Every structure is written in structure tokens, then in C-alpha cells.
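Handoff note, outgoing to incoming analyst
You'll be picking up this chain. Sequence as last confirmed:
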Amino acid sequence: MGRIDIDGLTRELSEELDARLKDADSALARQFPGDHGRRQPVHTVYVPGDRYHAGLVDEWGTGALAAVDAHAELFGELVGDPGTVARVRSKLDEEPIEDLRIDFEDGYGARPDAAEDADAAAAGVALARSRAEHAAPPFTGIRIKSLEAPTRHRALRTCIVFITSLTDAGATLEDFVVTLPKVTSVEQVEAMVRLCERTEAAADAGRLRFEIQVETPQSILSPDGAALVARMVHASEGRCTGLHYGTYDYSAFCGIAAPYQSMDHPVADHAKLVMQAAAAGTGVRLSDGSTNRLPVGDAAAVRCGWEEHLRLVRRSLERGYYQGWDLHPAQLPTRYAATFAFYRDDLADATRRLHDYFARADSAILDEPATVRALADYALRALQCGAATADELQEATGLGAERLAELARPAR
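Most recent structure output, in case you need it:
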């Protein structure tokens, strides 16, 4: 052992390897910065652009509560816990929509240019008004048409018209995104970056970001077999905030028969696993898709719609997809019921494990730092969506909300 100069060799190797790995270190920090730590909404509500108005959030909350009231016994039976039902009712009263996307794509359709211009301008003014009146959800945005050649001009114009209208009415681009659908190439993502750069410079109201809808097989697998969605994330120059799975377009492109198109079909699971790996460590969030079976009609139809929605939302959460799409006010009760149950079911165990880890207490589970991060993230998400309170978590873990956030989403 005495024949080796430990201090000298360590110093020499450190200097050599620091120099050798300098570029790799820089690339890792740039490409995989980790989660930004901000709240992620549990869902995105999509509404056609011509149907949006400043009072829509309250309207959806009222409609969701009316659905619960009309089928109170059924809802209580399906949820199975009076405490969760009470939490859902409170959520629907106070914050029925967490994230809203004003849609100018499939939900809106092809219309004369003058009509879409007018609807985009009116929606921008309405969103600015709802923000000024504190009636808007915490997160908002629009979905434009695809940047493929047939709809490219219309997509650009709608984006520019809407943002001009929004910012001229006094709103900023904070917590606002543009959803880019049916992406088929990295070049379209690069083009979207350019659209954001030019539009935000003209509006002078903050940084414009976008999310990519994964609705085509081309976005998952390139002609050479590469996972193209990973390249798309890194081509966004930090502007991409999320990858949203498109249930029905993706399934249709893969040739799945209409009765079997679903969020839990194997083609959906494959696409979402690739998306999950592509987004890991980048700070880009994931969202599952939607179910088009709506809980409306007679009691049997409502039961069928609510049962399916509860099952699919829970399934997504268990697989690390903490966000999804909702298409109708009557889906909001089961969105929140499934979400609250997901966190409440294991909250006592998660908080006990966090407490024991920092108290260095004997435990039947030997948690590692990576698992502690996951436990803290679970508790933090429970807090952010309303499934738990800060006081409850503090008492159970001995950790405040800020400390949980530091543990859950550490900076690189």
C-alpha cells in the first residue's frame, strides 16, 4: 500500500477525468436537468374554441356537482368512502378544473378562416378576462392544428391571433402552453420552437412553451428504429413542458379496431413506456389520454362510464402517469375520486416510511435515497392535488412542504 502515492494519484486522475468528462457533464446537466419542482395538474380539460367563455370553469363545476347529486347513491357506492366523497365535493366547488386547453383542432374542426380568426380572438379575450377575475384554472393553453402542410398556415395564424388577443387584453404567458398535435417529425418540433420565439418576441409577455401530443407511430419509432420522441424532447430547446398521449389517433394509426381503442390497449402501453423513458430526467411531464365513454344518460350508462373512468385513472396513476384528459363535466367527480383514493390508500405507509428514514428508526423496509425521493414525491403530489393537507403531512413525517419538495425534486 505504501508503494502508491494515494493523494497524488487521486489528484492526477481527478484532473484528467474532469477534463475528459467536461463535455459529457455539461450535456447531462443541459439535457437532463431533472424536474422543475412546480405543481403538475392531475388532468387537462379540452373544450372546443368556440364554446369557451370566461365562466366555463364554474359551469363545469356546477355540472359535475349536479352529476354527483343526481346519482349520489351510485357515486357513494363506487367510491366506497364518505371522506373521499366529501373531498371530491369540496374540490368541485373550489377548483373543478386544474388545467384547461381551448381546442382549435379535432374538437373544433375545419371552419372558414374568418370564423376561426374570430373564435380565436374571442377566446383570447375571454381567457384574459377570466384570469383578471380569478375565475381561470391554474394552468391554461390552446391546442392548434398540426404543423403538417395542409393545416400549417391555419395552425400558425390561430396561435398568433389567440396570443395577440390574450396579451393585448393584459394577460401574460405564465402557466400557459400551446399543444402541438399529430407530430410526425423532429423538424416539426424545431418549427414549433421558431413559432414560439417569434410570437413571444412580438407579444412581449413572457416565455411561450408547448407540449407535444404523441398521436402518431412516427413520433414513437422513426424509420431507422430510433425512439423519435426522445429526439423531439431535446429538439425543443427547453420549451417542451409535456408529452400527452393521444388515445384514439394513435390507436387508429396502429390499425386497432374502434371497439378496442383504449388507454389500456397494448399499443397504448408500448407508446407510453417509450414516452416515459424519453422524458425521464428531462423535466418534461407526462399525461395519459382520455376515455370517450361518458357517464351520461340513465343510471346504467352513468355506472358504466364512472366505473371505467375510475379504473383507467387509477391504472394510469399506478403506472406513473399523474395527468390525463377529461372531456365532460361528469368525468370530473371520478377523476378526483380516483386520484384522492390513489394517494389516501397508501399515504399512512408512505409518511411512516419517510418519518422512519430520517429518524433512523428500525423498519421492516430498508429504503434507499431513490425510494425516499419517490415517497416524498408521492406525499407532495397528494398535497398539491388536495388529497392531503400540509399539517397532516407535517405531523406524520416531521417534514414541511418545502422540505418535501426538496427531497422529491432535487436540483441536479
